[in-house]
Inverse folding.
């Protein structure tokens, strides 16, 4: 759910955008006569951008990431033809667990924002007690 | 810090991290409740470090498998419970 990453400071921020064309697969069904981007996909765009901020750190390229917990608010519909500007910020990154914020902006307005927790399981598992 | 206050702070780490009551602490172990999974473990460890102003070593984080055993681990960091 990302088209382009425009700025990264590894471990700190990742920004970019996603263009929603008129031909996205979900517009005909979400909803007929009133197409708009599903909230789940907006959140996915924010979460994916946050993972860029982490996986650009040395040694983490290509690592699998998992979503753990997200709290999201949707403030504005996103319509066909609009661009979602995505800004994410890492609040903490420790022992395989990342807490961060994401914001999606359309035409200068905040469309969605989220507090997110993501993990690189391969790292997190090294710190957990063995059963 | 008085011993009573130290144990209260220790208990609070668990009750707040896992949203459980104090009477559930004695036999509490990793994976014994849904809240104490790998993510809950990291949250609890993070809170512990913040409250007691310590930085746990990796082996101690892995070994910290129960409420009771955690007390033994914290002795290494000069926190007597």
């Amino acid at each position: 759910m990302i088209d382009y990453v425009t700025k990264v400071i590894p471990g700190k921020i990742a920004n970019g955008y996603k263009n929603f064309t008129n031909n996205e697969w979900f517009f005909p069904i979400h909803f007929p006569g009133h197409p708009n981007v599903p909230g789940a996909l907006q959140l996915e765009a924010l979460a994916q951008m946050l993972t860029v901020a982490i996986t650009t750190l040395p040694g983490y390229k290509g690592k699998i990431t998992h979503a753990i917990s997200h709290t999201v608010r949707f403030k504005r519909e996103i319509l066909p033809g609009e661009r979602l500007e995505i800004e994410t910020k890492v609040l903490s990154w420790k022992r395989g667990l990342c807490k961060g914020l994401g914001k999606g902006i359309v035409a200068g307005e905040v469309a969605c924002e989220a507090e997110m927790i993501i993990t690189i399981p391969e790292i997190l598992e090294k710190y957990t007690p063995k059963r | 810090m008085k011993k009573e206050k130290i144990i209260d702070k220790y208990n609070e780490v668990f009750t707040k991290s896992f949203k459980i009551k104090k009477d559930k602490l004695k036999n509490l172990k990793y994976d014994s409740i849904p809240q104490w999974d790998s993510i809950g473990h990291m949250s609890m460890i993070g809170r512990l470090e913040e409250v007691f102003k310590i930085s746990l070593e990796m082996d101690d984080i892995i070994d910290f498998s129960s409420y009771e055993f955690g007390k033994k681990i914290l002795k290494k960091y000069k926190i007597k419970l």
